[in-house]
Amino acid sequence: MKKAMLACSILVALSSAQFWQELTLEDFTLRWATVSASELAVELSGPTTGWVAVGFDPATAMQNANIIIGYVASGVPFIRDDFGVAPTSHAADTLLGGSHDLIIDGGTENAGTTEIMFTIPLDSGDQYDKPLVPGNTYPIILARSANGQDSFSAPHAVAATSQIEILGLSLDGSTWGGLKAPEF
Ligand code: HEM
């Protein structure tokens, strides 16, 4: 009976894992999955002990991107909801008059690599975020700072552009609740 339950748990874990999508680029790994059709769970890692960031749906470089930037200091993840106010600058949504629309799910800094985990609404309603519609493909930007830059205002050492498709397949709320790292 115990063996059957264990096999069943492994099957549930495997079938949940298929809903994560993944992109690797310039030594970044970006993973994303829609959750309950209204949120996007994201994990981003890159080889730096400073910050890593992803920007969704930019116009040019950072301009008009919904940027999420984060670092881990003394084991604690600091992750901020930003917006690209120009091709080469970004600011916190809250400083622009918008709202901070993200949940921090976790973060680690190990062996020179920083990983941040967070969940954002697919459509927060904030003018300083960008709605994401499942089934669509969006341009994205990725960036990371030099080592040791635990600051939202340090410049990047590496920046890259790509695109991702947001699949409509989603992790259901209860499965996601079991997989998700504890909130900070
Ligand atoms: C204080 C923080 C930042 C500063 C001062 C900054 C500054 C700049 C500058 C001066 C450029 C144009 C020259 C260059 O390519 O280096 C640039 C380009 C760019 N930045 Fe940033 N940036 C910052 C943060 C970010 C963040 C958080 C992201 C992504 C989420 C990002 C993504 C990009 C991209 C994609 C480009 C275009 C690169 C290319 O065309 O090859 N930047 N940034």
Question: Could you give the topology of this structure?
Answer:
Layout: H1 2-17, E1 21-25, E2 28-35, E3 39-46, E4 52-56, E5 66-73, E6 76-86, E7 89-92, H2 93-96, E8 103-110, E9 113-121, E10 137-145, E11 156-165, E12 170-171, H3 173-179
Parallel strand pairs: 2-12
Antiparallel strand pairs: 1-2, 2-3, 3-9, 4-5, 4-10, 5-6, 6-7, 8-9, 10-11
The structure holds protoporphyrin IX containing FE.
Protoporphyrin IX containing FE (HEM) binds at residues 53-55, 61-62, 67, 69, 88, 90, 141, 143, 153, 155-156, 159, 161.
> How many β-strands, per DSSP?
12
Largest sheet: 6 strands, mixed
Q: Determine the mean pLDDT.
A: 87
Q: Report the end-to-end length measured between terminal Cα atoms.
A: 36 Å
Using the CA coordinates, give the radius of gyration: 17 Å
Approximate helicity band = 10-25%
Describe this protein with a few key phrases:
mainly beta; disordered C terminus; six-stranded mixed sheet; 47% strand; globular; single chain; 15% helix; Immunoglobulin-like; 184 residues; binds protoporphyrin IX containing FE
In brief, what are we looking at here?
With about 180 residues, the protein is mostly beta strands. The protein contains three helices and twelve strands; from the N terminus they run H-E-E-E-E-E-E-E-H-E-E-E-E-E-H. It has a single domain (about 20-180), classed as Cellobiose dehydrogenase, cytochrome domain (Immunoglobulin-like).
General description of the model:
The chain is mainly β and 184 residues long. Helix content is 15%, strand content 47%. The chain has a single domain, classed as Immunoglobulin-like (Sandwich). It is built from 3 helices and 12 strands, in the order αβββββββαβββββα. A hairpin with a 2-residue loop joins strand 8 (103-110) and strand 9 (113-121). The protein is globular and about 35 Å long. Residues 5-18 and 176-184 have low confidence and may be disordered. Protoporphyrin IX containing FE (HEM) binds at residues 53-55, 61-62, 67, 69, 88, 90, 141, 143, 153, 155-156, 159, 161.
